[in-house]
Write a structure and sequence with these properties.
By secondary structure, the chain is of the alpha/beta class. 35% of the residues lie in helices and 21% in strands. It has 9 helices and 12 strands. Helix 3 packs across helix 9 and helix 6 crosses helix 7.
């Protein structure tokens, strides 16, 4: 039996086929254009494996509808991504392949991948929260193998923060909330603040200290709300040197209020290389769907 994975992003879809040991057999990147065109190219890839596919898991950008009781289950809903609002995603794939389809957010897929990998790396944990900081900011939480969220999926990228005293003039870029977490630390904020892309801003620039302060607040809120075993940060903005700054700010903010163990083991980079956590998570979710 083969397992299918779709990590659906606003810029590209990563489609992969793998085995039940979560090893990738083949993967392809599909540009995110229109739903019809993008879906057709994904199906063209999976059709080569159609007779062996046991299940497919889709981890999508959102917002998405996850309530099975809703007539819009399996839809991308009120996304700002042009042309994708109110798009039935699960339906066309279910009809074309007639296999179980697991459906969740892109960050939930990544969180589940890191949760599974912790066992494969002999570092088994029962809970974690995964943040991605890139073009946008989102987070997924896994507790005892289950996702958090019943009325909908979490939107932790839009929590409100205490402003850094050196950043009060920056209004934030979130079209909904201005200076929420996404509005203050997502990749495009570099250009909004400095006129430069993040990759061109040296780590010595004070803007990274400001970003670390906000990211540490997100880690603090997550710690006090969920008390997970680990918080993982992935995405294009994140690097180990940046996380060192985050840990330093987190330590000051937490002020030894609760015990989280060694910070370099608690606030970490992903175990999966090249931000590939969602593909691993999808394989695991697809296997679960195929065998339940």
């Amino acid at each position: 039996m083969l397992l299918g994975s779709i990590e659906a992003g606003g810029t590209k879809f990563v489609c992969a086929v793998g085995n039940t040991n979560y090893q990738i057999q083949e993967s392809v990147h599909v540009p995110t254009t229109t739903p019809d065109e993008t879906f057709a190219k994904c199906m063209e890839f999976f059709d080569k494996y159609k007779k062996d596919l046991g299940a497919i898991a889709i981890a999508s950008f959102g917002p998405i509808e996850i309530r099975r009781s809703s007539p819009k289950y399996g839809y991308i809903t009120d996304t700002p991504k042009q042309g994708w609002a109110d798009t039935d995603f699960v339906g066309p794939f279910k009809k074309h392949y007639n296999v179980p389809i697991a459906w969740t957010t892109d960050v939930n897929g990544s969180a589940y991948g890191e949760y599974v990998l912790s066992t494969l790396f002999n570092k088994r944990i029962n809970s974690l929260v995964y943040y991605t900081i890139g073009t946008g900011v989102g987070a997924g939480a896994v507790i005892d193998g289950h996702f958090v969220g019943e009325l909908g999926h979490p939107e932790m990228g839009h929590i409100r923060l205490k402003r850094h005293p050196d950043d009060l003039d920056f209004k934030g870029i979130c079209p909904f909330h201005g200076d929420c977490l996404e509005g203050l630390v997502s990749g495009p904020t570099f250009e909004a603040r400095t006129g430069k892309k993040g990759k061109d801003v040296p780590l010595s620039d004070h803007v990274w200290d400001i970003m670390a302060y906000y990211t540490a607040q997100a880690a603090l809120d997550t710690t006090l709300m969920f008390r997970p075993a680990k918080i993982v940060f992935g995405g294009g903005v994140v690097s180990e040197p940046f996380l060192k700054k985050v840990r330093r700010e987190f330590k000051k903010l937490l002020n030894d209020y609760v015990d989280v163990g060694e910070l370099d083991q608690y606030i970490t980079m992903p175990l999966a290389e090249n931000n590939g956590s969602a593909t691993i998570g999808d394989f695991a979710l697809a296997l679960k769907a195929a065998t339940n």
